[in-house]
Amino acid sequence: STGVAHILEHTALCGSRRYPVRDPFFMMTRRSLNTFMNAFTGADWTAYPFASLNRKDFENLLDVYLDAAFFPLLDPLDFAQEGHRVEFADAADPASPLVYKGVVYNEMKGAMSSPVQALAQRLQSALFPTTTYHHNSGGEPGVIPDLTHERLVAFHGAHYHPSNAVFMSYGDLPAAELQQHFEERALSAFTARPLDLAIPDERRYDAPVAVEAPYAADAEALADGTHVVLGWLLGRTTDPLETARARVLSDVLLDNSSSPLRHALETSELGAAPSPLCGYDDSTRETTFTCGLEGCAPDAGPAVERLVLDTIARVAADGVAPEVVESVLHQLELESREISGDGYPYGLKLMLDALTPLMHGGDPLDGLDIDPVLAELRREAAEPGFIPQLARRLLLDNPHRVRLSLKPDPELAARQAAAEIGRLAALRAQLDAEAQQQVRAQAAALAARQARHDDPALLPKVTLADVPAELAIATGETRQLNGVETAWYAQPTNGLVYQQWVIDLPALDPGLAGLVPLYALTLSEVGSAGRDYQETQALQAAVTGGISARCLVRAAVDDPQQLRAVLVLAGKALARNAGALTQLLRD
């Protein structure tokens, strides 16, 4: 919870042995054709991912990232800048109070001020009382100042070793060629080291526990600002079939408004809306399931728990219709086939899917090849009691359950600020003249470092000679479909069909025009063609990967004064359901 892994992620990208510049990461964004370039810290790993469609650029980025990961400078000034430091509130007045500064320190203060972020962290801490997941891997603001530069360097030495590293690549470059590059640029400088950084199984609760925690909020939130969630600890991510079973149960319960638990939460008077945390999470070594409500009264915890458990008990007693399970399996198949990165390049998405089982001793292909698991799930789902048995085994009979009530506390922010001021005042009282001068000297050195202009020639770059002269743009053809002019684009979509209906909007008076975005936002959330909204939601899940609507206003390419307003209705489906998608969009 000192944020050591998070701060190291930042500091490693502040210069390295071969590239001793202050900010190679952002300098490379201006010298690169990358399609992705970042770093992020998870609960039990740190990743340094990048992507490029240009081979020279890819090799440049690979050199920079290898050097940053294995041979970073880890300058104390970079630790002070990215992690934490103290400065005088008035740099010119050593008699002024001390203040904390630092990129990660401020980032985590902002993150943990979010009720949902605080809710997620407090729930994970309660579900994992003894393992690494109990701690805040991003850094707990009150604990971050405990971290020293020496501990940061020691953490790098212990963890950033090839014996503890995973290299993953996607693309058409030969693996042996990449491995040779890894060897020459990094691995040859190391010898193998026996490391055991494995995460053990969590100690299981004998009975459910109830936890309360505060979050900073205004007094207006006291009456109905409480978040109440239930969380269960489930099985290991290294068991692909068990992971898939839990995912199926979660989606049967929560996938859409026609799902029993989602419907119960959406229509309950106990809260304003289902919690943003609702769902299944397989990002940790042992997976979790969460559900609950936000916008509750302070004493709503037991009632919300009864609502959730009673709903699950009904599912365990009565089961669900076979088509509901088939709809969930359909969604799993669609998601596994879709060539989409959800904001990431597709190759990076595949890597992240494979990473969690790989990190914990499982088969990385289990995260990618879901077809054998789907086949087994369909066989199991054909047996009577499939969902009821899962509901009982994973949830109702599972004592490792936490009920967390996160309650608004109008005085929490003031108490936290007072604690920080007190800590800084105590530190301030210990500063002699020499220590005061060190604080001022560090601030001056940081300012000078920030103002320094590093030589960009120290970093690799791409030139025009490295860039293909031609840009590949997909071309389509025009066809008539039921009297409608249709643009067809043939692409390797792995068995999916995408449709967009582009409908010209008529001239509307200003009052109606202002409602069009609201119309688009709600269109896929209401009933259609005589069906109520629950039936329509169920149909969407059964035959599509979702539909959406949006409004666009665009100018003509050759005349910016010529405007066109359109409603775009869009959806996707497996090829076998293309006709059903068309009909639903028409409805």
What's the SSE blueprint?
Elements: H1 4-12, H2 24-29, E1 34-37, E2 40-41, E3 46-47, E4 50-52, H3 55-70, H4 76-82, E5 85-88, E6 98-101, H5 103-112, H6 115-127, H7 149-159, H8 175-185, E7 209-216, E8 226-236, H9 240-254, H10 260-267, E9 273-274, E10 279-281, E11 286-296, H11 301-318, H12 322-337, H13 346-359, H14 371-381, H15 386-396, E12 401-409, H16 412-429, H17 433-451, E13 477-481, E14 484-488, E15 496-504, H18 510-513, H19 516-523, H20 533-543, E16 547-556, E17 559-574, H21 578-586
Parallel strand pairs: 7-12
Antiparallel strand pairs: 1-4, 2-3, 5-6, 8-11, 8-12, 9-11, 10-11, 13-14, 15-17, 16-17
Helix pairs in contact: 1-7, 4-17, 9-14, 9-15, 10-11, 11-15, 12-14, 12-20
